[in-house]
Design brief:
alpha/beta, nine-stranded mixed sheet, three-stranded antiparallel sheet
């Protein structure tokens, strides 16, 4: 059960580039998998069985251990109708929950707005990485984006508060004219003020953090370590976002993909240990997704853009297991050489929004979608 002192939080990990579903959750007893993958495949001895049909790639051993504890929901065959094999368009669809039109608002930006409608906390949502993912983008919703928590800040070398405010005002005037003269100037000025406030708060997280967990040295572990620092500082952040990649493995896949998912698995396991050490494992749910899977047939060295994929939902309040049907590899069941999706990604979003964050999901995901049952009864109880 979640700790009543802490609001439930969501950590989203984006696997950028198109994670290979078939080499992540492996259909190791299906001869068609090995027929279609003569070179880019996971041998049976390198699979950690879930049952007599499917298993985890052995490089995912830390996540498999959490699965065995009942803490990992595997969402099989996730996708959307009329799949798009462009990285940019497909990721945009996942970010905006809008497959048919070009969306203007991110689903997590909308969720942030609903969690904090008056924007009282500029740190309700924080991205860990460069830029701002479209998923978090909604006009008027402040979101901090942190490349490196150790060095994060606006004008960090200016210690005097008045001087820093003056520097921000000068920046706003440079790009938008005098404050109050037009909407652009006001928007820039408010954005700068919010950013300054958020930066100052975030910089306090490092000094408050103490943990016995030693994270690995790689980008996703660094980001998840920063997520832990901010989370445990109790700054009111509810949504944390980060990404890892690139999973666009057209060539050299076995080495590249194995390294990347091993880093994700190790990073998530270390983060989960950190959550447990701080009594936060029941207050935190992790979503791992990618914009699409890969083609069923390999290309000799790698695999090309596909459709149906896999997502993971992890946490102390998650009911672990296999959800959704693993897509058939039979030729007559394929979608132009791809795995057919069998559940809409917005079902997973809706489940998390409704059953975990207690938000009305339909307006956030642009429709009503059947929900899963991977959140334990009584979770997020308030």
């Amino acid at each position: 059960m979640p700790n009543p002192k802490h609001d439930p939080s969501l950590v989203v990990i984006q696997l950028s580039g198109g994670n290979d579903y078939l080499n992540t959750i492996v259909p190791y007893n299906d001869g068609q998998y090995y027929d279609n993958r003569p070179t880019v495949r996971i041998e049976q001895e390198d699979v950690l069985p879930i049952d007599d049909q499917y298993g985890f790639n052995s490089t995912l051993a830390p996540i498999k251990a959490l699965y065995d504890e009942g803490k990992v929901a595997v969402i099989n065959g996730i996708g959307y109708p009329n799949p798009n094999r462009s990285h940019f368009r497909s990721m945009d669809i996942w970010h905006t929950a809008e497959p048919d039109d070009i969306g203007t608002e991110g689903w997590l930006g909308r969720a942030t707005r609903d969690l904090d409608p008056d924007s009282e906390n500029v740190l309700t949502a924080v991205n860990f990485g460069r830029g701002l993912p479209r998923a978090l983008g909604v006009r008027g919703v402040p979101v901090a984006s942190v490349g490196n928590l150790e060095t994060y800040g606006l004008f960090p070398d200016i210690k005097d508060q008045a001087m820093r405010k003056y520097a921000l005002d000068a920046f706003g005037k440079m790009y938008g004219g005098e404050r109050g003269a037009d909407a652009v100037a006001d928007f820039l000025g408010q954005t700068g003020t919010d950013a300054l406030k958020g930066a100052d708060l975030l910089r306090t997280a490092i000094g408050k953090y103490s943990s016995s967990v030693e994270y690995a040295s790689n980008p996703i572990s660094d980001s998840l370590s920063d997520v832990a620092k901010v989370m445990f500082a109790d700054l009111g952040t509810r949504i944390f976002y980060t990404q890892h990649g690139s999973f666009d493995t057209h060539s050299g896949e076995l080495a590249t993909h194995g390294k990347l998912i091993s880093e994700v698995s190790t990073g998530v396991a270390d983060f989960y240990d950190d959550l447990k050490e701080h009594g936060r494992e029941n207050d935190t749910t992790i979503l791992i997704f990618s914009e699409f899977g890969r083609r069923i047939k390999d290309n000799g060295s790698g695999s090309d853009h596909g459709s149906g994929g896999v997502a993971f939902v992890i946490g102390g309040s998650v009911k672990g297991g296999m959800y959704g049907e693993y897509p058939s590899l039979k030729e007559e069941d394929q979608l132009e050489g791809d795995l057919h999706f069998n559940n809409d990604f917005r079902s997973t979003y809706s489940t998390i929004l409704d059953k975990w964050l207690h938000l009305e999901p339909n307006s956030i995901v642009n429709g009503q979608f059947e929900q899963f049952d991977f959140i334990s009864n009584g979770s997020n109880g308030r």
